[in-house]
Structure formats: C-alpha cells, structure tokens
Amino acid sequence: MPACSRSWVSTCWSWPSEPARPSSDNPFGSELTMLTTNPRLAALLDLVLVLGTAILVKTLMMSVAWKFAGPVSLLCAMLLATWLIRRRGKRWSDYGLKLAPGWRSKLLLLPQILLMLSVMVGVSVAYKVWINPLIPIAPSLEDRFADIAGSPGFLALWIAIAIIHGGFFEEMIYRGFTILKLTEVLGGREGWRMPLAIVLQASFFGVRHMYYQGVGGGLATGLMGLGFGLMFWLFRRNLWPLIIAHASTGTLAMSMRYLDSIGVTEPG
Question: Lesser CB count within 10 Å: N end or C end of the chain?
Fold first, then answer.
C-alpha cells in the first residue's frame, strides 16, 4: 500500500524507531512527525502519556476501590512506560535499574541503603516536629489500612503491595523514568536541570498521595520524594538502594500495623 494512504492514526503513533511519514491526506503530518522525532518533544510526550495514565486510572478507580487506586493506576502507568521505553530502543537499565560493574559498586550497596534509611528517618522526624503540628496527616490514612487489623491475609496483600508498588513501581516511575525524562525535556542533566527535575517529580509524588493522606501527607511524601530524588542523583542514577530501602520500610510499616492490632506492640 502506498505510504500516502496511511491513516492519520498510523502517522500520529509512529515513534523514532519507526519514523513517521507525512501523508498528503493529513495537513498536520509535519507537526506530528516533529512531535514524535524531536528528542525533547518525544520525551515530553512520553511523560504526558505515562503520568496522564496514572492520573486518569486513579481518578476512575476512586469511585470503585479507592484503597487500591494508587497501586492499580501505577501498574497501568508502569506497563505503558515499559512499552514506550522498548519502543525507544532502551531498557529499564537506562533509567537506573542496574548496578555499576565491579565489586566496589556492590559493596557500596549496603551503606547506600543505610543512608537511604537515614534520609527517610530524618524526613519523617522533620515532618513530625515542624509540619505535622500545623498540617496533620488526614485520618483516611488509617482507614486505608484498616483491613490489616487481625488479618494475616490482608497483611500479606499489603506487604506485597509495599514491595512491588512502593519499592519497585514508585521508584522506577518517579525517580527513574520521571526524573530522567524531565532532564531530556529540559535538554540535559547539567547545571540547574537535574535539581529542577528532582523538585518537579517530588511535587508530583506528593500530590499523588494526597487522596488518602490529605495536604499534610502530601507534604510529607513530597519531602520524601525530594530526599529520594537527591539520593538517586548522588548514587549516579542507581535505583537499587532506593528500591530496597523503600520496600523494607513499607514492609516494616505494614507489619507494625498488624502487630499493633493484635496487641503485640502495646506497652505493658
């Protein structure tokens, strides 16, 4: 079939690995080709598609199963991001899911994880001391995890979510994909670009958690996202310390909720 007879949809969704061919039937062909082949515009398109999917699916899920709106929406965003990355001829290792070669990098993993845990504790303490008295976390935070009380089954479910959604998906999408795509949009990682990308992803990360934590919880998670983003930069774009620390603290938090519900952690 001649190239000029290709549909508008085919032209619109031709990616750099398969360059779009403007059709004489499509007056917007040149603009669409530029959108999908210009590296900065292509990175912006990827970001809009992935983060937009996360927002849309979560909005739809809120009236159906709000407790799982975050995990389900991020799963959809994760699947789309993976497809887009492969269409670009890249892998998740290009977005931080890798260890640097050599024993030194592997030996550094433990102190990096400990540093991550220290950052998380520091941010939590700072929030409780300076922000929480003014803007407390919404009570719906406890409502979301109420099913854990006395239920080993729900404990196992939420631990799985903490590891897969919190540990892997959040770090891969927000710290890996979002930060590095933002630097592509901004034209590189030099100077002010990387810090700005870190601040922007932290802001979005905080807003994403406001649906069950309120404004106070959004500020807390935003600060956490800022700390995680800075560590991602410090660790030379290595996601593994962030993933392990995030999954570990999430698992511990869920376990403590369960133990508290059955009286194990109560004083006396």
Answer: C
CA–centroid distance for 258 within its chain: 26
pLDDT over 70 (residue 36)? no
Separation between Cα atoms, residue 73 and residue 67, nearest integer Å: 11
Q: Are 250 and 209 in contact (CB under 8 A)?
A: no
**CA geometry: angle 96, 97, 102, nearest 5 deg:** 90
Query: Distance of CA 91 to CAs 37, 105, 147, 222, Å?
Result: 19, 20, 37, 27
Please state the pTM of the whole predicted model.
Answer: 0.84
Q: CA geometry: angle at 162 spanning 158 and 165, to 5°?
A: 115
C-alpha to C-alpha distance for 89 and 111, rounded to whole angstroms: 33
Neighbours of 31 (CB within 10 A): 10
Angle at the Cα of 57 from the Cα atoms of 168 and 247, rounded to 5 degrees: 15
For 78, the token pair is: 């994760």
Report the alpha-carbon distance of residue 63 to residue 61 in Å, rounded: 5
Tokens at 145, concatenated: 């995890």
Per DSSP, the three-state class of 44 is helix
Nearest to 196 by CA among 230, 147, 145: 230
Distance CA 177, CA 172 (A): 6
Q: Which residues contact 9 (CB under 8 A, 6 or more apart)?
A: none
Q: What are the φ/ψ torsions at residue 91 (nearest 5 degrees)?
A: -130, 170
